[in-house]
Amino acid sequence: MIEGYGIESELGVQPGLVLLRARQLMQDAQVLLQIWSDADTRVRDGVRQLAGLRHPGLATVLDIGETVDGRLYVALAGLPGPSLATRLREGIDLEQACTLLRRLALVVNHLEQRSPHRPELHAESILFEATGRPVITRLAPPAQDEGARATLSEIGALFYEALTGFAPTASGATLPDYLQRWQPIVDGCSAGGFKSASELLSCLDGLEGRMQGSALTVPKTEPAATSPSAEPATLRGAIVAAPLQEAATSPGAQRTLSASAAAQTALAEAAGAAPPDGTAPSPEPAVKQRPDPPTAWSAKLLGPPALAVAERAPAPAEPLHARPEPQHAERPATVKTRTAPDPEAAALAPPAPADTTRVTAPSRRMPADLGDSRAETVIPSRPRTQLPGSTPEPPPPSVVPLYAASAVAVLVLFAGLWWWLADGTNSMPAPLASVPAAASSAVADARPAMTLQARAPLASGDLTADEMDAALEFPPTGGIELDLAALPTVEDPVARFILFGRANIEAGRLIAPPGRNALERYLLALRIEPSNREAQAGVAEVGRRCLQTAVAAADLDGQLQALECVEQVAAAHAAGEAVLAEAMDLRAREHDRRIVAGAEALRAWRSDEAQALYAEALRLDPQSGAARSGSEESARQGKPGHMFRDRLRDGSDGPELRIVARLGWARNEVSVDEFRRYWVAAGQTKFGQSLPSCRDRESLLRSSRRRSWQAPDFAQDGGHPVVCVNFAMAEAYAGWLSEQTGARYRMPTQAEWQSVAGSPQPGCAANFRDQSAAQAWNAREASECSDGHDHTGSAGGAFETAGLRGLWGNVAEWLSDCDGNSCRQRVAAGGSWFSPANEAGPRGFAAEPGFTTIGIRVVRELPARD
C-alpha cells in the first residue's frame, strides 16, 4: 500500500486514523505507521510540529508522505510496547502510576515551553517503548483559551484511571480512602488548580517526599471567605503525633496533651475560629476511634522518628487530624477537631489490630462502587503559630541518638558478616557495646533477608569434646553455605547488554552511534562471558542485518556502507565470519555485473556510462585489472588513436578499428580469413554462381575466370590481404559488417583516404615493385632494394602510416568514388606489389573484374559521443 514499507499488523482504528505496525524495507527497521483518511491543515501542522521536536516522550518522525490514494501517512520510530489503553486494562500499581504521571507531565512541560501545540493524551495514542517509557504519538492543534487546563485535566483523568482502574465520572473524581494521599493531584488537574505542568510536578514532588524541608502546597480552586480576615479555603493538613499511652501525670502524657491542645488551637485559627481559651465555645468533640496503624506511605510523610514513637505506643488514642473537604466553588473549607484522649480509657483499650489496608494501586480493576469514605489526607503543613497566652509546645524528642544507634548497628552487622564469610583464623574481635533495642530491631527489619546454613546441631553424646569444640567453633573453619535464592537480587550485566543489543537491532542502530549500538552491546556481553551463545548469535545477527541492508540497497554508496558494516562485525568477533563470506560473494557478483555492463556500454558507444560502471567496479574491488583497463578505454573512446572492435552476431569480433580523423579505420586491409568468414555466411550465396574474372598484374590480356580470391595464382596464407574481389564484392562485405554489428561500415572516399595517407615512403619500406619482383617475373623499373616479397605480404606486417598498416604498397584499396562521370570505373589508391612507388596514387580501374593487385579496407562511421 505504501512504497518502501511492509505492513505487519494493524494496531487499531481511531476516528480518521488507522494505526499500523510496519517494517521499513530499506533499513529493515520496525516503524509505526499513521494513515490519516482526512488530514486537514490542523493535522498536518501537528505532524510538522511533532517532526521538529525532540524529547524522549515524543515519537520520532522518520518519514511523511502520501499513499497512492492520496491519504497522509506518517512513519514513526518503532515502539514495540503496548498502548496505554492496554496497560490500563491490565492494571498497573501505584509506583507505575506515579511514574506515568511524572513522565506525561514532563512532556507537557516541554511542549508548553517550545510549541503552541498540545499533546493528544488519548490512551490509544500513547505507546510504550522497549524500556517502558510512554511515548506520545500525536499533537493536537493549539487551544484558544483553556489549552493547558484541558491537557492537565486529561492527565488527571489518566492518573485517576491508573490508580482505581476506572475512568472518572462527570459527578467527580474522589479516590478511595487508602489513596486519599493523591487526591490533591486529581483535584488540581480536574478543577483547574494547576496552571501549568510545572505546578503539577511540584505537587507530585512534595507528595513523594522529593522536596525536603519545604511544605507541600495543595492547589486551590475558588477561595471561600468566611470573614474579611479569613485565609483562602486552601487548608494545609497538619501532622499531629499520637500521644503515648502512659500515666496522665507522666511527662509523656503532659507532652501529648500539650501537642493536642496546640493542634486544636492551630486548626481553629486556620478555620477562622477563636482559640479554645474560654473566650469562645470549644468545638464539639468527635467520637473516639482507634487510629489506623502507620502505612508505608504515611511512613514516608511522618519520617522515622514519628514512626518509632507510633510503634512504641501500646494503645494510642486517635490523634487530631485536619484535612480539607473536597474543594468546590460553593463550599468553604471545614475543619475536624477531636478532644484529648482519656489516658485511663486508652490504657484499658485492646491493642490495635494489624493493618490490612492496601497502600498500592490494584493490579486488577476494582469494583465501581467504592463508597464515599476517604482517609484523612496527611500533608506536611507550615509551622504552627504560637497564640498569646497558650502553653508553649515542648520540642519533639531528638532523633539523632536513634540515627546514631542505627548506624552503629549497621556497621557491626556488616563487620561481623565480613568476618564470618572471610573464614579468617585471627582471634575474634572484642565484643562491642550493645545498641538500644529499638535501634537493633529497626536494623534487623531493614537488613536484607539472607540464609546462612550452618552445620546441623548434634547431640553431645555423638561427639567427643574436641569434635564438639570444632563444631561450635566461630568462625567455622569449614566454610559456610549461602542460599543464593535468598540473597538480594542483582541485575545480570550480560543479560542487560543482550537486551540492549536486541533493542538497538530493532531500532536500526547496528554499528552506530558509538557506545549506543548493537555490536558494542554484544561485545561487552562477550567480554564478561566469552562463551555466551546468545551474545555470539547477536553478533551474527548484526552481520546478517548489515548483509540484508547491502542486498536491498538502492545505490552503491548504501551497499558499500552495509558491506563495510559486515566486515567490521567480522573483524570484531569470529561469530561474524560466516556472514563475511556471503558478503564477499555479493561484492564479487556486483563487481562482475558492472564489468559486463561496462563492456556492453562501450560497444554501444556510451562511454560516459561505461566509465561510471567501471568506476563503481573499482570501488567494489580496487585491485580489479578489468575495471581499470575498462575505465581507461572508456576515457579514450571516440578520441583519435582509440582502437576497438565491434561484436558480430555470433559473438566473435569484427575487424580491428582505429579512430583517425573522426572515422574508425580498419587498421589492416581485409585478410583472406576475414573475407572467408563473410563468404561462408553470405558471400557464397550472393556471388557463388557468377564470380568475376580476375586480371593478373592489371593486364586486360591476363584476365581469367579461373583465378579467384581463393586461388589468385600465387601463394597466400590467411593473413595476407584478399585479392581478386571486384568493387561489388567489396561493397557487399562492408554491408554485411553493418548488418552484423549495427554500425555503418563502408569504403572510404578519395578525400578521406588522401587526408590520412599523406605521401608514399621511398625505398623498400612499403611493398612496392622491387628486386624480388624483378627476379620472379622480370619486372622493369624495379627499386634497387628488396623487401623479400615478390607478390603480397602479410596484412599485419605492412608499412604503417597514421597507425594504419598497408595504406601504401602490398595491395591497392577500392575507394567509393567513381572515376570521372561513369561509375563503371572506380578509384583505387595506395599502389601494390606490382606498382612502382611513383605510380601509387589514386587512379581508375574497371569496377566489374577483380585484380590481383587490389584489395579492401573499410571504415566505420562513429556516433556522436555521449
Question: What report would you give on this structure?
Answer:
The chain has 23 helices and 25 strands. It has 866 residues and is α+β, with helices and mostly antiparallel strands. A five-stranded antiparallel sheet has the order 1-2-3-5-4, covered by helices on one side. Helix 3 (94-114) runs antiparallel to helix 4 (147-164). The protein is elongated and about 150 Å long. The chain starts with a strand and ends in a 5-residue tail after the last strand.
Keywords:
alpha+beta, 23 helices, 866 residues, elongated
Write the layout of secondary structure elements.
Layout lengths: L4 E10 L2 E8 L4 E8 L4 H12 L8 E6 L5 E6 L6 H7 L3 H21 L3 E2 L6 E3 L5 E3 L2 E2 L6 H18 L18 H8 L6 H11 L43 H20 L25 H17 L30 H6 L51 H23 L14 H10 L5 E2 L11 H7 L9 E2 L10 H14 L11 H11 L4 H20 L3 H17 L4 H27 L3 H14 L4 H12 L6 E2 L12 E4 L2 E4 L5 H16 L6 E2 L7 E2 L22 H15 L3 E2 L3 H8 L13 H7 L22 E2 L2 E2 L6 E8 L2 E8 L13 E4 L3 E2 L2 E2 L3 E3 L5
Parallel strand pairs: 15-23, 20-24
Antiparallel strand pairs: 1-2, 2-3, 3-5, 4-5, 6-9, 7-8, 10-11, 12-13, 13-14, 14-25, 15-16, 17-25, 18-19, 20-21, 21-22
Helix pairs in contact: 3-4, 3-6, 4-5, 10-11, 13-14, 13-15, 14-15, 15-16, 15-17, 16-17, 17-18, 17-19, 18-19, 20-21
